[in-house]
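Our consortium's second objective concerns turning raw sequence data into structural hypotheses that experimental partners can test. To show how far this objective has progressed, the report includes one record in full. It was chosen at random from the queue rather than selected for favorable results. The single chain below, 336 residues long, was entered without modification.
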Amino acid sequence: MRRYGKHTDEDDIRQRPNPKGNRPRTSIRPKHEDAAEGMVLTVDRGRLTCLVDGRTVMAMKARELGRKAAVVGDRVELVGDMTGRKDTLARIVRIGKRSSVLRRTADDDDPYERVVVANADQLAIVTALADPEPRPRLIDRCLVAAFDGGLEPLLVLTKSDLAPPETLLELYGALDIPYVVTSREDLYDGDAADRVREYIDGRITAFVGHSGVGKTTLVNALVPEDRRRSTGRVNAVTGRGRHTTTSALALPLADEGGWVIDTPGVRSFGLHHVDPSRVIQAFPDLVPGTESCPRACSHDERDCALDEWVAQGNADPARLYSLRRLLATRERREGD
């Protein structure tokens, strides 16, 4: 051990370098006035494929963005090499304000919130009428996520040749949700795609659904020039489909200017992030009746003013039933 006397020269003293102090710290960030605007098409292991001036550009997130992550549908600003050539890489330096977000958690007890899609206009909830059997609770959860995130819902019911749609549609009649009913034959002869296009032309639509319901088959029919991987079969024992889409991907609709965003098949849709008080905003005809509710009313309790307000004829009782069924989804598993 080196020892120093009383009259040690300063130059003799060893100083440990501060690993965090080697670089000057500043709150000033680059302005990047020359940044180009783009849209995130897909994300894969930290690399983001973006559309910039009609070219697909591979990019990564700039360090200055911190933990803020870009997702499919985000409007971003990029700098660097944007030629789109092989082995080139740009940097995303800004993420634009989002007009809507589709979020989910792994389950209702998981506090980690994941943004799946940004800036979509509507959410197409694809479900089969049979093979596999429809799961109303999962549909309810997707509806809550849509209402909470600012997306308009659209029901797409497939395989009507195996089971009639009336029973399932009756559950959602009071919600006034637009819907499209298709059969397996429709999916392959183009009729299903034509019917769905009436609702998605000129809009950004995210497609979500349980595995095996025909979601990716429908997306392939809507955007045949950008076909995704072939679809999987439904397991005869479990009634579950095999995941064939592993990452969200935005695909342009020909001529109409709209976009289709195909998302991975889901088996659960956690709503830990959803504040139940926001679900009522999806029922504007019921909102006036909440003015007399007690503070922090859950709208599903004995003192809720909505019961009397609806009984007086101010709204359809079916609407109140639908609201409470959606509110209860956070307390149930999808398969219940």
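The partners drew two points from this record. The mean pLDDT is 83. The longest strand covers residues 36-44. Both points have been shared with the crystallography group to help prioritize constructs.
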